Amino acid sequence: MRSVLATPLGKELYKQRAQLIEPFFGDTKHNRGFTRFARRGRSAAQTEWRLIAATHNLLKLHKHFQALPA
Fold it and tell me: d(Cα 7, Cα 33) in Å, to the nearest integer?
């Protein structure tokens, strides 16, 4: 991984992470209060994470359609 990040393309792609990935985790942890999984086991945690991601996407869609003029 270090060798990939050492290349100019790798550095550029890693810069984009701050704009694309990190806001999702910040919103999920801070604004929505999701700091740990409630269920045990890998499949249960995966299902719970998918539910969190789905609600995040639904909220984005809701905000988008609320902003459209009537």
Answer: 37
Residue whose entry in the numeric block shows the structure tokens 């499949």: 43
- The encoded tokens of residue 29 equal 């942890």
Nearest Cα residue to 37 out of 25, 27, 49: 49
Rounded to 5°, the CA angle 58-61-64 comes to 150
- pLDDT tens for 13-70 read 888 888 888 888 888 999 999 999 999 999 999 999 999 999 999 999 999 999 888 6
Answer whether 0.85 is exceeded by the pTM.
Answer: no
Q: Which two tokens stand for residue 32?
A: 């929505």
Q: Report whether 34 contacts 62 (CB < 8 A).
A: no
Q: What span, in angstroms and rounded, lies between the C-alpha atoms of 38 and 52?
A: 12
